[in-house]
Specification:
Layout lengths: L1 H26 L30 H10 L6 H12 L5 H4 L1 E2 L6 E2 L4 H8 L6 E5 L6 E6 H5 L17 E3 L4 H10 L4 E5 L5 E6 H9 L13 E5 L2 E5 L4 H8 L11 H9 L8 E4 L2 E9 L2 E9 L6 E2 L5 E2 L9
């Protein structure tokens, strides 16, 4: 009888201990993000998983967070995805392309420059001299808007530009721009031509989302006017233009058709200006102070073949601006 009571007491005691432990666990405060910062303690982490021994690798932390992304608010989850994307996103992927750049010629008078840039919503504007894809430097919008009376030349306000290759990872660029004197960089391709630019705001947008709501881009379009005629948004990617127009514009020359036309002409074109590449004639339909908005494309009819004295076809074709 004594043994039965003893066993019963031990069993009750064991049950009480388990119940108490459960209550203690239930009343523990929820852990927050700092729990990830102590991976060497033999406890459970933020999401109830056993912590790693030693210092965790970046990929391991990333995977844990992504596996439990529902534990974060929508804004926090978006920010985390943005942070992780810094390690594999290149400058070319987020840059403002050449066709959308606010750029001024070095000979532009100050007053005319003010009129061009006062509504641009950018802090710095690139400056070019001979070709728009060969930038000389940058100017501060504030320097121009508050230039002393009587100042007419742009040259004294030009600052050196910071150039980076289009393949540079934006995680590295973010740290460089944070320490740079000017928070803007010019993106160049393998040929040394300017293809776009990135400001510090553009990098921050990659993490926190859209900042300049006034610069939300409208959907791109290609309007078919006939069998051999199209209207193109200047920001239309080269891939789409090639597929639609059945042409072969090299993709390493520019990201957009507007940027490609700017490179062919080498300066800001006037409305109605034409340039021919391959079998397509491009007409600049609409322009603004510092770029192209709409382009008309028209396929050139195949020239009539003439038989030469040797029997070979003699074909003459004019390709203006092709390279």
């Amino acid at each position: 009888m004594k043994n039965k009571r003893s066993r019963s007491t031990e069993k009750d005691s064991e049950t009480t201990t388990k119940t108490t432990d459960s209550l203690v666990v239930a009343n523990r405060p929820k852990r927050t993000l700092p729990a990830l910062a102590s991976p060497t303690k033999p406890e459970r982490g933020l999401f109830g998983k056993r912590k790693l021994k030693g210092d965790p690798k970046a990929d391991q932390i990333k995977q844990i967070v992504l596996d439990n992304v529902k534990a974060f608010s929508e804004a926090d989850a978006r920010m985390l995805h943005g942070i992780f994307s810094l390690a594999h996103t290149t400058a070319r992927e987020i840059m403002i392309p050449l066709s959308e750049m606010v750029a001024v010629h070095i000979a532009t008078p100050i007053e005319q420059t003010k009129a061009m840039i006062q509504h641009s919503n950018y802090q710095f504007v690139p400056v070019y001299e001979e070709r728009i894809d060969r930038l000389t430097g940058i100017v501060s919008v504030m320097d121009i808007l508050y230039a002393p009376q009587g100042t007419n030349e742009l040259d004294p306000f030009i600052r050196p530009a910071y150039y980076i290759p289009e393949t540079k990872l934006i995680g590295e660029l973010l740290e460089e721009l944070r320490l740079a004197s000017e928070p803007i960089t010019i993106i160049i391709d393998e040929h040394g031509s300017c293809v776009g630019f990135i400001g510090l705001d553009d990098l921050l947008e990659q993490i926190v989302g859209e900042i300049r709501h006034s610069h939300k881009r409208q959907p791109l379009h290609v309007e078919v006017l006939g069998n051999n005629s199209w209207t193109l948004d200047a920001r239309t990617p080269i891939d789409i233009v090639n597929a639609t127009l059945i042409t072969n514009i090299p993709k390493d020359r520019s990201d957009t058709i507007g940027g490609f036309i700017l490179k062919l002409i080498g300066r800001l074109p006037e409305q109605g200006e034409k340039v021919t590449y391959d079998t397509i004639e491009y007409t600049v339909d609409e322009v603004f102070d510092y770029g192209i908005t709409v382009i008309h494309a028209n396929k050139i009819p195949s020239p009539v073949s003439e038989k030469g004295p040797s029997g070979w076809d003699s074909v003459t074709q004019k390709l203006t601006g092709s390279s």
